[in-house]
Amino acid sequence: MRLVLAFGFAAAMTTAASAGMMMNFEWGPTAKCFDPKSPPITLSGVPAGTKTLAFNMIDLDAPSFKHGGGTVAFGGQKNLPYGAFSYRGPCPPRPHTYEISVRALDAGGKALATAKARRRFP
Predict the structure, then answer these.
(1) Pairing relationship of beta strands 79-80 and 111-121 according to DSSP bridges
(2) Which residues constitute the signal peptide according to the record (predicted)?
(3) Is 101 helix (H, G, I), strand (E, B) or coil?
(4) Burial environment of residue 90 by CB neighbours within 10 A (0 to 12, 13 to 18, 19 or more)
């Protein structure tokens, strides 16, 4: 039983890793204190069949604060401009580290790949 579970876990990790989706972001014109516009984001390796990108932001220094995220219809774009979706922007009392994650979803809502990136603000 352990061998089967270990094999299944390794196969799942290989599938996720082989997707190769990556993302990055810069704060760009993001203003401090609840700027509702997402920062500029770049994407690569988004898998075929992706219809929607679902984003979420976490403040790693205050993880209980809910920033939320948003969704964007995917049509092959590599760059998402400032304000592509709305969320609750950064408002730290001192520099904090934020992580934005993205899930590539097919038409049925199944996650095909995930990626994340971190940046300090301000």
Answers:
(1) unpaired
(2) 1-19
(3) strand
(4) buried
- 115, 64 contact by CB (below 8 A): no
Alpha carbons 67 and 61: distance in angstroms, whole number: 13
Phi and psi, residue 31, nearest 5°: -90, 145
Cβ distance 32 to 95 under 8 Å? no
Q: CA 80, 82, 87: angle at the middle one, nearest 5?
A: 100
Domain covering 20-121: architecture: Alpha-Beta Complex (3.90)
pLDDT confidence of residue 21: 97
User: Positive or negative, the Cα torsion across 71, 57, 24, 92?
Assistant: positive
Tell me the per-residue pLDDT of 78-118, one tens digit each, with 9 for 90 and over: 999 999 999 999 999 999 999 999 999 999 999 999 999 99
Count of alpha carbons within 13 Å of 49, Cβ hemisphere only? 11
What is the model's pTM? 0.83
